Amino acid sequence: CACSAERLPRVAPVVIMLLEHDGRALLGRGKGWPEQRYSALAGFVEPGESIEEAVAREVFEEAGVRVGGVRYIASQPWPFPSSLMMACIAVAEDDALTIDTSELEDAIWVSRADVRAVMAGGAGPFLPAPPYAIAHTLLTHWANG
Predict the structure, then answer these.
(1) pTM score, two decimals?
(2) Rounded distance, CA 107 to CA 24, Å?
């Protein structure tokens, strides 16, 4: 526009989270993902919602699990679509899953040993996110935690 108004870029806040229960982490599989690719659950933060509230809502919507404590781990800008991803680890009240198949194709609980093996390049029950993705950072942090 010809006016002198300053325009700032829009950034969409996203939570990405691992849910932990009894030494295991919950990973989800998106529709159309490569075979065996599983990752942290994620979703957009709604207007007026805190990071903790968004984590709890997204986990319940996608996997049907109630969440206790949520702790922030790290963040990463993500250009598609201009998002700021905020990585968290949350505690599950139980490990029973009710998967929303419109959101996830599948979800699995994985042990720290499995995550460590996969992250080191070994075999395991899933393929990890690429090293540049915050999901990779989140899994590494949890596995070494």
Answers:
(1) 0.90
(2) 12
